[in-house]
Amino acid sequence: MNLKEYYQKVNSEKSKSQDVAWLIKEVSNVEPFLWGETELTPQLVSTLDKGIKRLSSGEPLGYILGYVPFWNCKILVTPDVLIPRAETEQLCELVVDRVSGENLRILDLCTGSGCIAVALATQLNCKVVATDISEAALKVAKQNAVINNAQVDFICGDLFKNVSGKFDVIVTNPPYIAEEEKEILPSSVLDFEPHIALFGGDDGLDFYKRIKDNVRPYLSPRGMIFMEVGDTQAERIVDIFDKDFDCEIISDYFGFKRFVIARSRK
Ligand SMILES: C[S@@+](CC[C@H](N)C(=O)[O-])C[C@H]1O[C@@H](n2cnc3c(N)ncnc32)[C@H](O)[C@@H]1O
């Protein structure tokens, strides 16, 4: 059997055809236009079969392959970290579009796999400080900094705990799912991704409130906070910040209000 025949066989049985195709391409290291002329070895069949089985159990492709592409980087992922999402690439784009200058000081709160910190450090050619409460996540994030040649200082702690200094830019994609949304989460998220990365209290806004209450000592005058938010949360997050910050809501490429930028008035 060649790779094309294998794809046709498993694809007719499974629904996630894009993931199946991507799995075959990545595992075989053969581009799809060459699949028809690439015969399968028993070892490749066995590896592919195992991957397809995991896909059909609902496991996200990122965990099966152990990595995802993220903007300009390759990001390693394990079950200890959230799989970076496309919206988060847009969050990085926003930062790069809106900030300029030399020697920028950037803090990534709730770094997880380190995707934001690593992407910004490489793109802006600056050093980034990144924090997370999970030692296990930070282990993965550190590997990502190394393989992408990014200068990131990692700190373990609860939000700003153990952070020192002031930052021109704070960027964050904190846990923001409301408790009540637990029931409607797809099982690929609920059963496979770390819960510490998902839930942000009853209304999902706990982290934004804590950031607002504690950020002042860490933000430069006129410093900016770039936040990824849930698609129904943007206005409520502006309410949290707008006493002391000029806020702007930005939509993602699908038109959902997924980002809030808060610029300090002081
Ligand atoms: C939504 S994930 C974001 C991960 C990554 N920044 C991304 O965008 O893919 C949230 C991260 O917050 C971390 N976290 C949860 N509670 C925290 C806390 N109290 N202080 C710092 N980080 C926390 C989790 O370990 C997780 O890595």
Q: Mind summarizing the main beta sheet? A: 7 strands, mixed
Low-pLDDT windows of residues: none
Termini separation comes to 67 Å
Radius of gyration: 20 Å
Average pLDDT for all residues: 94
* Approximate helicity band: 25-40%
Please tell me about this protein's structure.
This protein folds into two domains: 55 residues; 186 residues, Rossmann fold. Helices cover 38% and strands 20% of the residues. The strands form two sheets. A seven-stranded mixed β-sheet has the order 5-4-3-6-7-9-8, with helices on both faces. It has a two-stranded antiparallel ribbon with strand order 1-2. The mean pLDDT is 94.
Set out the fold topology.
Elements: H1 3-13, H2 17-28, H3 42-56, H4 61-65, E1 67-70, E2 73-76, H5 86-98, E3 106-109, H6 115-124, E4 128-132, H7 135-147, E5 152-156, E6 167-172, H8 187-190, H9 206-214, E7 219-228, H10 234-241, E8 245-251, E9 257-264
Parallel strand pairs: 3-4, 3-6, 4-5, 6-7
Antiparallel strand pairs: 1-2, 7-9, 8-9
Helix pairs in contact: 1-2, 2-3, 5-6
Residues 82, 84, 88, 110-113, 115-116, 131-134, 137, 158-159, 173-175, 196-197 line the site of S-adenosylmethionine.
Short note summarizing the structure:
The chain is α/β, with parallel strands linked by helices.
Throw out a few tags for this protein:
266 residues; binds S-adenosylmethionine; alpha/beta; two-stranded antiparallel sheet; seven-stranded mixed beta sheet; Rossmann fold; 38% helix
